[in-house]
Design a protein that fits this description.
- The chain is of the alpha+beta class.
- The protein folds into two domains: 96 residues, no CATH class; 180 residues, Sandwich (Jelly Rolls).
- Strands 2, 6, 8, 9, 10 and 12 form a six-stranded antiparallel sheet that branches.
- Strand 16 and strand 17 form a beta hairpin.
- Helix 1 packs across helix 3 and helix 1 packs across helix 4.
């Protein structure tokens, strides 16, 4: 019964995420290149082109190859999030002749987790201009979305909500469209990034098991009932939201397993922890 309740509520969280507009970015981790230190990836967290009267944007290093890619990596607000879309705004260099816009040709998104828990502290200490792509395992890769050369917050909606297990997002910027007049090199510049979805950290949590790279799903009993009530209230207001827990528990749990199998190969529902552990704040549920 507990197994069905947990996975059915997780399924409801995924369904309700379709109407959520929460910003899921926690902090910036790294960029594959940075032209100058004051053009850091951190600037992409600020939803404006100017901050304290100075331009606010991330810039790649210049490249002679218009097809040279770049990557940006972010930590999400929770190790378990449901992501529905990513929004990005290319930077317009208003201080250059013609006000060029340094967009990418297209973008692609990856979601996943760090390879080792021991590297968490290293990521926080690492210079954000230094690439860190080799420190992660990506369990989901989106389709490629075209980016337009326009100064606006462009929305890239995923075909369906995606469960991110591990809490990291990589943005792949594919191709360059704008040369800089000063050095005749191609650049990509982004002024703002926003990740839309639903962080599940208040109710659900995950931890990685090394070296197997399996994940244990935990849930918070204190928040569990409140979360279900919240979903129930939304269900009365919006017919598109999944119903509250009922006799359909077995079906819902099966759908949840099928959903995760499609997005995270190797998902396996394992046995439950001993009942003696029920007094813990976060209860171990099973293996993802």
């Amino acid at each position: 019964k507990r197994e069905h309740e947990v996975y059915a509520s997780l399924l409801q969280a995924i369904e309700s995420s379709k109407s959520c507009q929460n910003d899921c970015i926690g902090y910036a981790v790294s960029a594959s290149s940075t032209d100058y230190p004051d053009e850091s990836i951190v600037n992409t967290l600020i939803p404006m082109d100017k901050y304290l009267n100075s331009p606010s944007y991330w810039s790649s290093k210049g490249h002679s190859d218009r097809n040279a890619p770049e990557t940006l990596i972010y930590k999400l607000k929770a190790d378990l999030c449901v992501i529905t879309e990513v929004c990005m705004k290319p930077f317009e260099a208003y201080f250059q002749p013609g006000k060029p816009i340094y967009s990418a040709k297209s973008v692609r998104f990856r979601l996943g987790h760090r390879k080792s828990l021991r590297e968490e502290s290293d990521l926080l200490k690492m210079p954000q201009q230094q690439p860190a792509d080799d420190k992660f395992m990506w369990t989901y890769t989106s389709e490629e979305f075209p980016m337009t050369q326009e100064k606006c917050l462009q929305r890239f909606k995923l075909p369906e909500p995606v469960v991110c297990v591990g809490g990291y997002l990589q943005i792949l910027l594919l191709g360059r469209v704008q040369r800089q007049e000063m050095d005749d090199l191609f650049y990509i510049c982004i002024s703002h990034v926003r990740v839309v979805g639903l962080p599940l950290g208040s109710t659900f949590d995950v931890k990685v098991l090394e070296p197997s790279q399996e994940f244990v799903l935990n849930y918070n009993r204190d928040v569990f009932g409140c979360t279900l009530q919240s979903f129930s209230n939304r269900g009365h207001q919006d017919s598109n939201v999944a119903p509250t827990l009922s006799e359909e528990l077995v079906v819902d749990a099966g759908i949840m397993e099928f959903f995760l199998q499609n997005h995270h190969p190797g998902f396996e529902l394992m046995g439950w922890g001993d009942d003696d552990d029920d007094d813990e704040e976060m209860e171990e549920v099973g293996i993802l």
